[in-house]
Amino acid sequence: MPATSDERALALALAERDDADLADLLAARAVSASAAWRDFFDAAEALLDPASIARGLAVLPLDDAVALDEAVRAEGTVAPESRPRLASA
Fold first, then answer.
1. Angstrom distances, CA of residue 68 to CA of 30, 57, 86
2. Number of structural domains in the chain
3. How far apart are CA 12 and CA 55, in angstroms?
4. Are 54 and 23 within one domain?
5. Which residues lie below 8 Å from residue 2, measured CB to CB, with a gap of 6+?
6. How far is CA 54 from CA 13, 39, 50, 57, in A?
7. Distances from the Cα of 38 to the Cαs of 5, 15, 33, 50, in angstroms?
8. What does the pLDDT look like over 19-54, one tens digit per residue?
9. 7 plus 23 within the same structural domain
10. 25 & 13 share domain
């Protein structure tokens, strides 16, 4: 099955990260070291799974959660001050 545009965008963004940054991101999302992913597309698909998103949202600071909620509701972009924290969450 072809990847959705969201999965493709996330896979490409993951591929651009250096190893340390990627390790920090996966640790923050509580990804098991034994995850059976073959490539960045597998990782993107798993990270976009609703259960994975729920785990990530549960640990967001309130300010970042509000910024994300506002962006989604307005179909706009995330407030600039929240972008760096959300990019690493």
1. 20, 10, 8
2. 2
3. 22
4. yes
5. none
6. 20, 23, 6, 5
7. 19, 13, 13, 20
8. 999 888 888 888 887 888 899 999 999 898 888 888
9. yes
10. yes
Task: Find out whether 14 and 22 touch, Cβ atoms under 8 Å.
Answer: yes
What are 34's two structure tokens?
């034994």
**pTM for this prediction:** 0.71
- Residue 9 C-alpha from the chain's centroid: 11
Judgement on whether residues 4 and 31 belong to the same structural domain of the protein? yes
Which tokens hold the place of 36?
A: 């059976």
Same domain, 31 and 53: yes
Token pair in block for residue 66: 């509000």
| In a shared domain, residues 52 and 22 | yes
Q: Give tens-digit pLDDT for 65-84.
A: 888 888 878 777 777 777 77
User: Can you give the residue range of the structural domain that contains 41?
Assistant: 1-58
- How far is residue 79's CA from residue 9's CA, in Å, rounded to a whole number? 20
